[in-house]
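Technical annex, item 7. During the second reporting period the consortium partners agreed on a shared format for inverse folding records so that results from different sites could be compared directly. Each record opens with the tokenized structure and is followed by the designed sequence. A conforming record, contributed by the partner at site C, is shown below for reference.
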């Protein structure tokens, strides 16, 4: 790789030219990294629902042409001025949010919401100079959440890269850069279910199943999966889910159904849908005295959470979380080690694999609801 240091690299990337239209494999130019930036050779990336959401661009600022992708794994090709923690050849996971290690959030043991590198979906350029590192024929192609991993090479701020054990298979641990860690951490770091407790998981997509995996690892005795799609129930058994509730099967609120199933309510609940009614149900289904509900899903901007204050006064706790409360650089390497110790199972999340040339198939699988995670191989 050393022959490319300091030079523009020409490589293939899947470019999104306009909202909702198939991605196009193009030759792009990737500029060298500037101060506090790293150029990474991406080996594997995965498609997350967030990529699809911003590709559709139905409810947010459209930024095109753009290179999407944020769940990935790769190898450092070169580093910019001031980068001391990484060197060429290091194995890394890019992350859509960062850890500068200098701001109040990064210095706090309680927060992972870095002031400098917190997710910004509207920004399509690098922080250092407000320019893109991608171009075609001199015209900029915009970045996505600081990662843009649907490219054979990408440039990322050093604070958004977690250095990991080189023994870890990159085609598996790449899915830890977003959804799996979000759900897993929501349970292990925020809900913190005691061994033998009961846990309800609202939404059995990839993030919800990751939350269930966290409950399984924590030793929950009963994991109740709540979803409107009964097809998800069979798959969820692999993640430790023991009971299934479809709210459409009942003529009363699902929180009442769960309370009856569990002698007053579950010990912990994790909400992974973003639906405001599911959020309220997740809170109201936890037991008084000690129940904790954790919100993970992102609501619509006009939603309002409504629950009677007595639900709080009766000692139920409501919490929110961002990226499972993991600090990307500090904590993600230990999640990779959990996988290497066989405590965390990742293979069951991966349902499909395609090459970069066939990346539009990955979008098709997700839009049809057929995939949890589709791995995109760069070769």
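Designed sequence (site C submission):
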């Amino acid at each position: 790789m050393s022959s490319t240091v300091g030079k523009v690299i020409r490589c293939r990337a899947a470019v999104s030219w306009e909202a909702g239209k198939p991605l196009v494999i193009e030759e792009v130019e990737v500029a060298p990294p500037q101060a506090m930036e790293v150029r990474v050779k991406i080996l594997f990336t995965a498609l997350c629902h967030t990529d699809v959401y911003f590709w559709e661009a139905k409810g947010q600022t459209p930024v095109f042409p753009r290179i999407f992708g944020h769940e990935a794994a790769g190898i450092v090709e070169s580093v910019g001025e001031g980068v001391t923690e990484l060197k060429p050849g290091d194995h890394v996971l890019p992350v859509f949010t960062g850890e500068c290690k200098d701001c109040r959030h990064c210095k706090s043991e309680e927060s992972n919401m870095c002031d400098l590198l917190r997710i910004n979906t509207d920004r399509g350029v690098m922080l250092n100079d407000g320019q893109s590192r991608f171009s075609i024929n001199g015209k900029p192609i915009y970045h996505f959440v600081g990662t843009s991993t649907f490219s054979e090479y990408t440039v990322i701020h050093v604070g958004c890269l977690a250095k990991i054990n080189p023994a870890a298979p990159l085609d598996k641990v790449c899915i830890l850069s977003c959804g799996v860690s979000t759900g897993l951490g929501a349970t292990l770091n925020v809900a913190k279910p005691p061994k033998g407790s009961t846990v309800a998981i609202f939404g059995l997509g990839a993030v919800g199943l990751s939350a269930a995996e966290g409950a399984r690892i924590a030793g929950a005795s009963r994991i109740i999966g709540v979803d409107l799609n009964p097809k998800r129930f069979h798959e969820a058994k692999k993640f430790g889910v023991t009971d299934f509730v479809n709210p459409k099967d009942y003529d009363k609120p699902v929180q009442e159904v769960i309370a009856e199933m569990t002698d007053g309510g579950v010990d912990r609940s994790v909400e992974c849908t973003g639906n405001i009614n599911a959020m309220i149900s997740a809170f109201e289904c936890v037991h008084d005295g000690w129940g904790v509900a954790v919100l993970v899903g992102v609501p619509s901007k006009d939603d309002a959470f409504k629950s009677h204050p007595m639900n709080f006064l009766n000692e139920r706790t409501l919490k929110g979380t961002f990226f499972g409360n993991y600090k990307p650089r500090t904590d993600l390497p230990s999640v990779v080690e959990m996988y290497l110790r066989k405590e965390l199972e990742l293979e069951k999340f991966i349902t499909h694999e395609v090459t970069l040339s066939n990346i539009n198939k990955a979008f098709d699988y997700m839009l049809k609801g057929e995939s949890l995670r589709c791995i995109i191989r760069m070769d």
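The first helix runs from residue 49 to 56. The CA atoms of residues 192 and 218 lie 8 Å apart. All partners now use this format for quarterly exchanges.
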